[in-house]
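Open question from group meeting: does this chain pack into something compact, or does most of it stay loose? Before anyone orders reagents, we agreed to write out a predicted structure and look at it together. Recording both the input and the output here so the notebook holds the full record.
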Amino acid sequence: MQRRAHGLAALLMNAIRLGLFLYCLGAASAAVAAEPSRVLILTGADPSQPAAFVQIRAIRSMLDAELPGSTEVYLDSIDGFRFGDEDLTQTFQALMQKKYKGQHIDLIIVLGTHAADFVLQYRETLWPGTPVLFSSVTDSWMAQHTLPPGIAVLPFPTDVSQTLAVAQALQPRARRLVVVGGVSDVDKEMIGRVVRAANREPGYWASVEQWEGLGLGELKKRLAGLGKDDVVIYTTIYRDREGHRYFPYQLVQPMVQASHAPIYGWYSTYVEGGITAGVVYDLAGNGTNTGKAAVAILKNGGTFTNVALPAMPARCVANVAELERFGLSVASLPPDCQLVNFPPSIFREYRGTMLTLVGVLLAQALTIVALLAQRRKRRDAEAESAARGSELARAARFAAAGELSASIAHEVGQPLGAILSNADAAELLVTSPHADVGELQEILSDVKRDALRANDVVQRLRALLQKQSIVFAPLPVDTTLRESLPLLEPEARRRNIRIDTQFAAGDLEVMGDHVQLQQVLLNLAVNAMDAMHESAPANRVLTLVTRPAGEGMEIAVADRGSGFRVSCPEQLFEPFYTTKPHGMGLGLSIVRSIVEAHHGRVSAALRSGGGAEIVVWLPLMKGGYRAPAADDFSATAPDKAAAPASDVSR
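Structure tokens returned:
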């Protein structure tokens, strides 16, 4: 038993030792697996230069997005574009050897030809066997070098002929080409590219000038002397003849401000400085493509198999502000050309607000046009209605004259009969042997008096019935109404009605139409006489009253007739309402239309003891009084003029 217990203990200890060994092995494997990928970005330009900065930022962003937390990125710069003439490679190589001693680099990303030269020379010394990805290395440099294995290249074409084509499209009359650049190796190489591209079109350019290494002051002076029909191509200026070093983008804005000719280029950073146009290469897009290729290489274990290496993207870009400055047409650009830097415009900055405002203004304009059209139609309708109302009122006067015709004929017949009798008497006197001249004079005087009497009746009737325009003028009410009595008195005598006049307005005047006010009196008086048709002869009294009433005056027409049987007296003045067996109900409606056209009002009431009274109130003439317009009658007449006026009864 004791020997067996010792065996079990030994077996347990061996199992514990095995577990500890496996745990340590797994931890070591996990530590190895968690080892981050180290990426070195080596640029031949200053990292703060926008052309380099946008690419570096895009590469880092892509690595962080696709390999979060599993990469270490290092950055070093040679800045050979500005210091290419200095022999700094050995010193820089010593720094790199000391800095990265003992560090395993998984991928080297090279930006620019100066960095590419350094890697080709010192790769095996510093980073033997490490995969390398070239980016932003010109195609002309690639044509001059043979690359060893383990180096991949993203194409970096710079076809300056496309930018020249854009310049030719915008300025078809331009024949002078000015190429601006510096004196560094890269500057000279870029100038040569443009000159070669221009010479591929023999005879097009009358002159091709190379402005190399000019100081900024001299450069601005020369640019100011150019004309709008000249073309300027800006390549790069890393150094000038005076030894000043620049980032090429730094000179873009001063050049644009000084130049009297459009400036073209092919770098996206130049667009921000204000060049006119060009087929520019998107450096940020190139950095994104470089980052994608780097991620694919790292995931592929450092090999380039099946790794896509797209060329740097290029696109046409045009500065609208500069196009407008030089009078160049946007229509001359390629259809897919991107337009940037629009001049400040309230419509562009507040497009939504301005579109809303324009919509509101358009809606208001349409509303105004519609209202004006409606107003014109309304005025035409009012004019037509006024004409119809005037015709209706005249027809009503004919109807009133028709009812008074028997009395008028009698009134005219009496003086005519007297004239005839006097004429017979005069004839007898003339044929007698002893004619009495005095008696003949009396006869002629009687004839004249009777003729004037008949003529007065005819003239009053003619004035009432003739067609005339409505004319508003100051009228003494009492005088106007008295002139209507000769037309009423014969009819009153025929019907055995006594007219009681109580005119107390004196010299008070109203603004009105003479004929229309007489028509109001005639309509109301005839209605009152009709109402007393069945009254006892002693009660047949027609009362006509005028009296002051506040700021106006009243005309009252009262009778002792049958009155009216309606709950609301206003109903009497509605069109087509009548109590007569053969009436049409337009008389009082026309009365109300005329009174309201004179800015007055009319009302009806029953009298105590029998009969009815209709009262018309009219405003008096005074300072600031507005005379009614000639078409005011149409304001109330249209709905009251729907039928011919053949009845003046209520």
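Observations to bring back to the group:
The chain has a mean pLDDT of 80.
Residues 351-403 form the longest helix (53 residues).
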